[in-house]
From TrEMBL, chains A, B:
Alphabetical keyword list: Hydrolase
Catalytic residues (UniProt): 34 (proton donor), 115 (proton acceptor)
Species the sequence originates in: Pontibacillus yanchengensis Y32
A GO molecular-function descriptor: hydrolase activity, acting on ester bonds
Motif (HXTX 1): 34-37
Family, similarity comment: Belongs to the 2H phosphoesterase superfamily. YjcG family.
EC number: 3.1.-.-
Short sequence motif named HXTX 2, residue ranges: 115-118
Domain of life, per lineage: Bacteria
Family annotation (InterPro entries): 2H_phosphoesterase_YjcG-like (IPR050580), Cyclic_Pdiesterase (IPR009097), YjcG (IPR022932)
The name this protein goes by in its record: Putative phosphoesterase N782_15380
Pfam families, sorted: 2_5_RNA_ligase2 (PF13563)
């Protein structure tokens, strides 16, 4: 099965993100707004409990931390993806790095840019228009992150939560 | 915030349910296929951790159990809702009843009919057609339930998982 690891931010942030995703993100219905900690990886069902134990250990050894969003950004010209930029923090980077060690399947091959996607798969023109108009708006959030989730993907592309991990607890 | 409690069955069952929900259930995009254990209830954010402790206690005192699906059924004529009927079991009934005690907000006011909705809000004609054609198909599943989830509802009506509870563990 295909698994992934993500943080769901507070309802406030999710509601704001969804107000844009509804129009600009074809993945709107597949998963709530989230920060990906580990990209999709394949794991056999019978081995997932071992992975859960590994992840639980990482969660236990990571304290809850503060997450800030101050602005939007874009992955253009690589992809026409607009996102709420999550401020870099040592805690978030460490959590990401530990979840992408070799004993949890599949290391990320690109740099970790923590973000919450609000628009993707836009045409170049759409991207310019949407990014231009969104830049007038303020996106300011700060909140405490105390958990993250392991999810699996269904055949229709949507994601179901398998397990919740509490930071500092497991 | 509005919270609810549900079991997500295995990916196999969710994939089958979604193949029908895609066409026949307007809630398709709001939540994965599920068995509702506790209908939506309001709780203040600052009180939810107390509720989580209560629920965790119930989870810890409930052993994993076997769940069987043998056929489809319908809530017609009350509502034109078609569902996979989850066979009655003492464990499931007890879990439901304990999660609907008075110290967890809001008791259910109707009987517990465990089910996975695959079609709803159909017209009478649609309901007859769909139910008629689905009755030719076999729906046979049996699996072990070892967890359930506490979710909250976003402004767009979709649900995000807040916490996972493991049966026998909490």
């Amino acid at each position: 099965m295909k698994y992934g690891i993500a943080i769901f931010p507070s309802k406030d942030i999710q509601d704001v993100a969804n107000s844009y995703r509804m129009r600009y993100d074809p993945h709107y219905a597949l998963i709530p707004p989230h920060i990906t900690l580990k990209e999709a990886f394949e794991e056999e069902d019978e081995d997932i409990e071992k992975v859960v134990e590994e992840i639980s250990e990482v969660a236990k050894e990571t304290n809850p931390f503060s997450m800030a969003i101050r602005k939007l950004s874009t992955f253009s010209p690589v992809t026409n993806t607009i996102y709420m930029k999550v401020e870099a923090s040592e805690e978030l980077q460490n959590l990401h790095d530990r979840l992408n060690r070799t004993d949890i399947p599949k290391e990320d091959t690109f740099n970790f840019v923590p973000h919450i996607t609000i628009a993707q798969k836009l045409s170049d023109d759409e991207h310019s228009d949407v990014y231009g108009s969104l830049q007038m708006k303020s996106f300011e959030f700060e909140e405490r992150i105390d958990r993250f989730q392991l999810l699996y993907q269904l055949d229709n592309g949507s994601w179901t939560v398998y397990e919740t991990f509490r930071l500092g607890k497991g």
